[in-house]
Amino acid sequence: MKKEFDFSTSFIFAYLRGKAEVTERDIKLDMPNTIAHIIPMGVQNQVIPLRNISSASAGLSIRGIFILIGIAFLMLTKFSFSLINSPSDFFQWLLFPFLCILSFMHAFVFVPAIQRSGNDYFIQVPFYESKKLHELNDAITEALNYEADKTDIIKNVNPRLDEQTAIAKEQLEITKAQKEQQDEQTELFKQIAENK
User: Fold this and answer.
1) Dihedral sign of CA atoms 44, 141, 105, 7 in order
2) Could you tell me the pTM of the whole model?
3) What gap in Å lies between CA 33 and CA 129, rounded to an integer?
4) What angle do CA 154, 157, 159 make, to 5 degrees?
5) How far is CA 135 from the centre of its chain?
6) Interatomic CA distance for residues 106 and 73, integer angstroms
7) Which residues are registered as beta bridge partners of 4?
8) If the chain, 196 residues long, is cut into consecutive pieces of 10 residues, what is the mean pLDDT of each piece?
């Protein structure tokens, strides 16, 4: 079982891509390191063993700062619309709505979380990548279920061994009880012999 997922980590900059690989033993994540979420500066590699993961979840998150930036561009659009005097101003007027729309779109992110011992690991991706990340979440859940089933099978491989161990313990206790009875009878016979 090996599943790979490739996804964008930025709404605006499509060249910032992340990669996740789910195997039966671990999850490998390659996420881009960036300066100001624009300039790529290598890749952050993370390997998380399935034994350390308790669950995986996913949900939509809204980043308020980008909504505020979008509102600011919306106000600039309204202000610049009243000041259109030449064709160059018209292109400037088109720039502000475009930036406003980009800001609003960048505000909505899909955030899958891998809950592990220690810190939770969050991946922020644009909302249009939610289908891929739902598939990633399903693959992690499937791998966790496989790991749990595997440990259950190991625990249940030798149920006869457990039964045999329990029977042996019972027989040992019976033998101890019989020995104690024999010791008591021996003591009783000694007392009877001494009394005669």
Assistant:
1) positive
2) 0.59
3) 19
4) 125
5) 13
6) 14
7) 21
8) 81 81 85 79 82 76 84 79 62 76 80 74 78 83 78 59 74 82 80 75
